[in-house]
Structures are given as structure tokens and as C-alpha cells.
Amino acid sequence: MTVPKTTVLVLDSAEPELLARFYSELLGATNGPAPGDEDLLLVTGRTGVVLGVRRDPDHVPPSWPLPEGSQQAHLCVLVEERFFDEAEREAVTLGARPVAAEDDGSLPGSRTTLRRYADPAGHGFVLSAVPDGRARADSAG
Questions:
Q1: What is the DSSP letter of 81?
Q2: Closest CA to 42 of 88, 75, 87, 7
Q3: What's the rounded Cα separation, in Å, for the pair 86 and 97?
Q4: Distance from the CA of 47 to the CA of which of 7, 75, 77, 96 falls in 20 to 30 A?
Q5: 98-117: pLDDT as tens digits
Q6: How far is residue 136's CA from residue 18's CA, in Å, rounded to a whole number?
Q7: What angle in degrees, to the nearest 10, is found between the helix axes of 84-94 and 16-27?
Q8: pTM (2 decimals)?
Q9: Cβ count within 10 A of residue 76
């Protein structure tokens, strides 16, 4: 028997409140302190916790992607193709820094289908276009 577990990806940040707010607004989610852990904020979407942000006063932004081409761990936010440009504007307005854009070949005729960013604390994430109807509007991230 497998013991029931829950997992959440946790990002470190010198300013966790700002980073949690960034992801809450980007994903249409809420955030608040984790029960019993004042240094951990949980970003929660309609389907449950999707991300944690932990206070680390010594946080150093990661280098992403590495020059050798390795992407390292990152968040992938799926966006329906028809909302892709709007999602990019939203991310940048909230404080994301564009890193790269490319066509991954999955959507013919698309200007780009994969756009890489650094969040306000420097963590990598991508917006990835999917055919309309394939990204669930009720799922954050």
C-alpha cells in the first residue's frame, strides 16, 4: 500500500510575498501561509496547492537556461493558442523577464509556441501554447 502524499514545488525567494503574489495573479490563484510554517506561502488554484514559495534571505537567482542548453527545473504554464499573446503580456506586466521565444513545431503557422521567462526572483518558467480547448481553464499552472 502506498501512503497518501501531497507534493508541491517550492521556490526560494528573498521576498516570498512578492513572488507568491506574482504567481497568484499569473495563475488566477490565491496565496496564504502554510499551516505551521510562517516561512512558506502556498499558491492555491481551483484544484488545490500548485506552488510553494519559501523565504530565503540569501536567495541567489538561478542562471536559466544554462549556456550549455540545460533548462534545469522550471514551471510550464499551458496556455491555449488563442490566448498566448495575451498571456505573455500578462506575465510581463506582472514582472516576468523574457528570456527566449521559439517555435517548438507543435502548432503549424504559429509565430512561437514556447516562450521562456524568469520570474521576479529569477526562477525559470515557460508559457507553452497548446491547441485551443486543450488547456483547462479551471486548472492553475
A1: G
A2: 7
A3: 15
A4: 96
A5: 987 665 555 455 567 788 89
A6: 26
A7: 160
A8: 0.76
A9: 12
